[in-house]
Amino acid sequence: MSNKRNSKTASEHDQASPVLAISDHPLQAFRSVTRMPIGLDEDVCSRSIEVLNQILADTIALRDLYKKHHWQVAGPTFLPLHELFDKHAAEQNEIVDMLAERVQLLGGVSVAAAADVVELTQVPRPPKEREEVPTQISRLVEAHEIILREARRGARQASEAGDEGTNDLLVSDVVRTNELEVWFISQHLVNVPLSEEQPNH
Ligand SMILES: [Fe+2]
Questions:
Q1: Is the Cα dihedral 116, 117, 123, 128 positive or negative?
Q2: Rounded to the nearest whole angstrom, what is the distance from the C-alpha of residue 166 to the centroid of ligand 1?
Q3: Which of 36, 57, 104, 161 counts the highest number of beta carbons within 10 A?
Q4: What is the share, in percent, of the chain residues with pLDDT greater than 90?
Q5: Could you tell me the domains of the chain?
Q6: How far is the CA of 67 from the centre of ligand 1 (A)?
Q7: Ligand 1: distance of its center to the CA of 137 in Å?
């Protein structure tokens, strides 16, 4: 009696089990564009998608660089930099989402997995080793500048093509946020003494 009940329970359990099915037929190929009813020509969408995916890969790399430095920072400025690096990582993470979702709404396929980001990004790979603060910040500034140049170029291209949504995202979110973050971190590299030496009279 109890065996029968157990087997019935087992059978019910089988029906409720998730059916895993990983297909090797993709829904949409990477770099392909599906037509979206948003009043933009396919070639305009295609060019915007290419720029957005490039900046997306670079922004993911920058976000992860901020996390690396957030975890590994050391020295007298540990706490403010530990907190600032994490704040910027969170801001970059929001931009990652905006970029990826714009690629999708334009009919593209957003770059997503770490291995694919590595193939696409122009941000130099940092070493696994822990580094000193000036090196950490210099690496971040270098990555920001790569993104800023690409974002301004992409914004101009999108505006000329009539894709004002992409222009707005690149100017209002990518350029403005990256410029502000460069200011916040680069000021830590200015050599200002904590107190003035008194002149001898
Ligand atoms: Fe943390």
A1: negative
A2: 32
A3: 57
A4: 85
A5: 42-188 (1.20.1260.10)
A6: 8
A7: 18
> Residue 12's pLDDT is what?
60
What would the pLDDT profile of 56-113 be if each residue is shown by its tens digit?
Answer: 999 999 999 999 999 999 999 999 999 999 999 999 999 999 999 999 999 999 999 9
Residue 64, both tokens? 């992860």
Taking the centre of ligand 1 as the mean of its atom positions, its distance from the CA of residue 85, in whole angstroms, is 9
CA 187 – ligand 1 centroid, Å: 22
Whole-number Å distance, alpha carbon 70 to ligand 1 midpoint, is 7
State whether residue 125 is helix, strand or coil. Answer: coil
Give CA–CA dist 149/196, Å, rounded: 38
**Cα R_g (the chain), whole angstroms:** 24
CA of 73 to the centre of ligand 1 (A): 11
Q: What is the mean pLDDT of the chain?
A: 93
